[in-house]
TrEMBL record:
This is Sigma-54-dependent Fis family transcriptional regulator. PANTHER family: PROPIONATE CATABOLISM OPERON REGULATORY PROTEIN, TRANSCRIPTIONAL REGULATORY PROTEIN. The keyword DNA-binding applies. Residues 370-603 form the Sigma-54 factor interaction domain. The keyword Transport does not apply. Keywords: ATP-binding, DNA-binding, Nucleotide-binding, Transcription, Transcription regulation, Two-component regulatory system. It holds the Pfam family Sigma54_activat. Coiled coil: none annotated. The lineage of its organism: Bacteria, Pseudomonadati, Pseudomonadota, Alphaproteobacteria, Hyphomicrobiales. SUPFAM superfamilies: GAF domain-like, Homeodomain-like, P-loop containing nucleoside triphosphate hydrolases. It comes from the Bacteria.
């Protein structure tokens, strides 16, 4: 490829748009690249709303979609460089955190690095966040790359620098190239790059990207194939490393567990808490742990391994549904590198009993994930549980504001609906799908159904959810022209892929959720009334957090302990004034806002106790005006007559509050109850914490 000279645009006969993940074979799009036309399209895109129609000739849909994400994400189109971290401690942390990836890439990078000198190209390795952790290649290009922070510590995901080979490969999950004017930021349009994601062989998650970059003249159609092949080599090296670790962990278990019996269940987890070996696990535990049978070579996350590796800490780190097992730390070269979970064999029980017990256990576990005991919340949980247990309800509408936890109710329905261990739960956010892709995502397509269609065809989410639950979040965002087809599938229980006349029967329970008033949407003509009445035959309203009273305190306690446990810290304490302010706040962001606040407090708190001034201004300011002392005098309360058990309990709480000066932690300790129980008792008896 050559730079344009004079008025002649730069062109190439065929530019690759995708490389096969399995073989690295290049798929060509058959389009010309016109530098000036692409720049005009970019300038037009920036001058108009980001939703402007894509240029079908000069801008690939992959690039247009990435431009849209970049613009709506607030990326500065005139930017000249990526963010860069030069902090040595942070770079050292990145190196340690990605030691396995760096080790697996070393052989490929060493061999390719020797060949790139003098070519004008550089090869870089980025982690799952798009941060560069290694770079080799032509020395001049490496030097010039630092002008745009294309070096170790540079952050190249789309959220940081818009459309580019690294960030866009992370987003799409496929090998791609971004050439010259196709970049979103003006400062990097003289570069060309081809990136390919690297997936963990154990669980398939993207853990990094390998990218070939340089000034635009280095572009060749096979650059994408080169990085795709390099990524596969790195994945192969990772698989070899993991197989070696698996063997060593099994050997460590054999030498440390002489009492293990062949009929006992056994799961070996690696240092990340993922199952790498599973044998003879009882049905109930297998269902809980893996959400279905383990596929060969595909890991399931089970637990967080503590840093200390002590038996006590390991036992405490086990999730509740795994507490019946015996856990043994497995060390390699003196470091904790995994654990063995042994499930003692149990007497056989009838299959009917097992199925019923498993259904109830799944339902109880899912219900326990919804924290709170307010009347409105419990009523919503009850309806969801009854829908889950009923075979006659095939669709359900969940309504509620953003952040109230609607997906937890969808998972509750799935948990109570499961007939086998393999019943799927498929979730799709209708607000995150472009209008053009809705039909393909919902119903699938056959090979060649439309431009860009998969060569082998693709099942839609209805087929993927067959036998289980399909959760459609933000159903109000569903385009009006797609709604009749969704209604037809719900009525006929048959799905037709795009381009295919053959119907495929599906047995799917639909759980639709929305934060809109669908009745108003129907009245405005934006949502079909027949579809609304079809999905809304049974509906659940999830109450806003401001309607749930003291559930705020239960959720604070829940998230406080959860976040502290993950971080290995002690839970925070909250002063009375802080708790009063949190109770008085309206919580426009609901449970999600509350969780984010607790996470923020754990990060920013200067001490172990949260005072009123530690809270955000919109929360603390609202409480200062409402802080009025209760008119009752403590001495008078201590003299109140005791007529019943409830009176005695109420008086005991008041006495403890007086004795401990209103410190709720000390009051709970004095009474021998937990803080959540104390909160419930305060609400039950109408005792205000400010009565002192």
């Amino acid at each position: 490829m050559k730079h344009a000279s004079g008025p002649n645009p730069m062109k190439t006969d065929a530019l690759p748009t995708r490389a096969s993940m399995a073989t690295g074979q290049l798929v060509l799009d058959g389009i010309d690249y016109d530098e000036r036309a692409t720049m005009r399209a970019w300038e037009s895109f920036l001058s108009d709303e980001p939703t402007c129609a894509r240029d079908p000739v000069h801008v690939r849909s992959l690039i247009h979609d990435s431009w849209y994400r970049s613009a709506t994400g607030g990326i500065n189109a005139q930017g000249i460089e990526a963010p860069l971290s030069s902090d040595r401690d942070e770079i050292e942390y990145l190196t340690r955190a990605n030691a396995e990836l760096l080790s697996a890439a070393r052989r490929s990078f060493v061999s390719l690095g020797q060949l790139l000198e003098g070519t004008g190209a550089m090869l870089v390795l980025a982690d799952s966040d798009g941060v560069l952790i290694d770079a080799i290649g032509d020395k001049k290009t490496l030097h010039d790359g630092m002008d745009i922070h294309l070096g170790i510590g540079g952050k190249w995901n789309e959220d940081a620098v818009g459309t580019n080979g690294i960030g866009t490969a992370l987003w799409t999950g496929e090998p791609i190239f971004v050439h010259a004017a196709e970049h979103f930021c003006a400062g990097i349009k003289s570069w060309t790059c081809a990136g390919a994601p690297i997936r963990d062989p154990l669980d398939g998650k993207i853990i990094g990207v390998v990218d070939l970059s340089g000034y635009s003249p280095i572009f060749r159609p096979h650059n994408t194939a080169l990085v795709a092949a390099t990524a596969r080599q790195i994945e192969k090296a990772l698989a070899e490393q993991q197989q070696e670790q698996r063997t060593r962990l099994l050997e460590a278990f054999i030498s440390s567990a002489p009492s293990y019996r062949r009929k006992d269940g056994l799961v070996i987890v690696d240092h990340r808490g993922r199952a790498i070996f599973c044998n003879n696990v009882p049905n109930g535990d297998a269902t809980e742990m893996m959400d279905g049978p383990m596929e060969p070579g595909r890991g399931r996350w089970l637990m967080n391994l503590p840093a200390s590796g002590s038996d006590t800490d390991l036992a405490n780190a086990l999730p509740a549904h795994l507490r019946s097992c015996h856990v043994t730390p497995l060390k390699l070269d003196g470091d904790l590198r995994g654990a063995a979970l042994v499930f003692p064999s149990v007497p056989a029980v009838s299959s009917v009993t097992v199925i019923r017990r498993e259904e109830n256990k799944h339902l109880r576990t899912a219900a326990a994930m919804i924290v709170g005991d307010s009347e409105k919340l419990l009523a919503a949980i009850d309806v969801a549980s009854r829908v889950a247990a009923s075979n006659g309800v095939t669709s359900l509408l969940i309504e509620g504001e953003t952040g109230v936890g609607k997906e937890l109710f969808a998972r509750l329905v799935h948990a109570g609906s499961r007939r086998t261990e393999n019943d799927p739960f498929i979730a799709m956010n209708c607000g995150a799908i472009t209008k053009e892709l809705f039909g393909s995502e919902l119903f699938g397509h056959v090979a060649g159904a439309f431009t860009g269609a998969s060569r082998d065809g693709k099942p839609g989410i209805f087929e993927l959810a067959n036998g289980g639950v399909l959760s459609l979040d933000e159903i109000g965002e569903l385009p009006l022209e797609i709604q009749p087809f969704l209604l037809r599938v719900l009525e006929e229980r048959v799905v037709h892929r795009i381009g295919d006349s053959r119907g495929r029967p599906v047995d799917v329970r639909l759980v639709a959720s929305t934060n809109r008033d669908l009745k108003q949407e129907v009245a405005a003509g934006r949502f079909r009334s027949d579809l609304y009445y079809r999905i809304g035959a049974v509906s659940i309203h999830v109450p806003a957090l401001r309607e749930r009273g003291d559930d705020v305190l239960l959720l604070i306690e829940h998230f406080n302990r959860q976040i502290a446990k993950l971080a290995g810290n002690d839970p925070l304490e909250f002063s009375n004034d802080a708790l009063d302010a949190l109770l008085a706040y309206r919580w426009p962001g609901n449970v999600r806002e509350l969780k984010n606040l607790v996470e923020r407090l754990h990060i920013l708190a200067r001490g172990g106790t949260i005072e009123l001034q530690d809270l955000p201004g919109e929360i603390s300011a609202g409480n200062r005006d409402a802080m009025v002392m209760h008119g009752d005098h403590p001495a008078a309360m201590l003299e109140a007559p005791v007529c019943s058990f409830e009176d005695a309990e109420r008086q005991a709480i008041k006495n403890a509050l007086v004795a401990e000066g209103g410190n709720l932690s000390k009051v709970a300790l004095r009474l021998g109850i937990s803080r959540p129980t104390l909160y419930r008792k305060l609400g039950q008896y109408g005792i205000r914490r400010g009565f002192l």
